[in-house]
């Protein structure tokens, strides 16, 4: 979500999240917010984070401005947070430069649309050799759900609270 090949339009915010690839997610609550990303490959998957909430969020996806193959996909409502959910996938593309466009069409406002990263298939035959944007070997740890453990999160929270109390008491 921090790659320079991603161009954002509308109101997008970067959210720090230890479970996100690179420790961040990009989020919007504004219908009509959009983004484009340029990639070289034969396929792409958009991974995102589904926060609590019941209202679906609808997103329009196109590859290379081809409306004939465009898809409207909904991020479903959920009673739990879901990490690294595939929001969209395109495969079987010619191995070349492509542009993916995503446009939030409805449902934002009451819930946040949160995307994490793109996984690009760079194979000509459709095998599972993939890399993320940006290319990094650390993505496999994040995508498999191995972020910060509950103990690490608790340690960060307790340390932050104690540090705040210390600063408030002495300053």
Structure description:
The structure is a single chain. This protein has helices spanning 139-143, 150-170, and strands at 6-9, 13-16, 24-28, 34-41, 43-50, 57-63, 71-75, 82-90, 96-106, 113-121, 130-132. Strand 6 and strand 7 (71-75) form a beta hairpin. The longest helix is centred in the last third of the chain and has 21 residues, at 150-170. 27% of the residues are buried. Strands 2, 3, 5, 8, 10 and 11 form a 6-stranded antiparallel β-sheet that branches. A 5-stranded antiparallel β-sheet has the order 1-4-9-6-7, with no helix packed on it. The protein is α+β, with helices and mostly antiparallel strands and 171 residues long. It has 2 helices and 11 strands, in the order βββββββββββαα. The protein is globular.
Main attributes of the structure:
171 residues; 11 strands; 15% helix; single chain; five-stranded antiparallel β-sheet; six-stranded antiparallel β-sheet
């Amino acid at each position: 979500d921090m790659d320079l090949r991603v161009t954002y339009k509308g109101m997008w915010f970067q959210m720090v999240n230890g479970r996100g690839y690179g420790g961040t997610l990009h989020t919007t609550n504004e219908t009509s917010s959009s983004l484009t990303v340029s990639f070289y490959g034969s396929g792409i998957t958009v991974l995102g984070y589904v926060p609590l909430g019941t209202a679906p969020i609808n997103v329009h996806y196109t590859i290379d401005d081809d409306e004939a193959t465009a898809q409207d996909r909904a991020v479903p409502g959920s009673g739990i947070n879901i990490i690294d959910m595939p929001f969209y996938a395109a495969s079987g593309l010619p191995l070349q430069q492509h542009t993916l466009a995503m446009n939030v069409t409805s449902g934002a406002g009451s819930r946040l649309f949160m995307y994490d990263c793109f996984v690009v298939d760079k194979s000509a035959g459709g095998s599972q050799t993939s890399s993320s944007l940006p290319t990094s070997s650390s993505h496999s740890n994040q995508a498999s759900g191995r972020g910060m453990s509950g103990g690490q999160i608790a340690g960060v929270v307790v340390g932050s609270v104690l540090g705040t109390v210390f600063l408030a008491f002495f300053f």
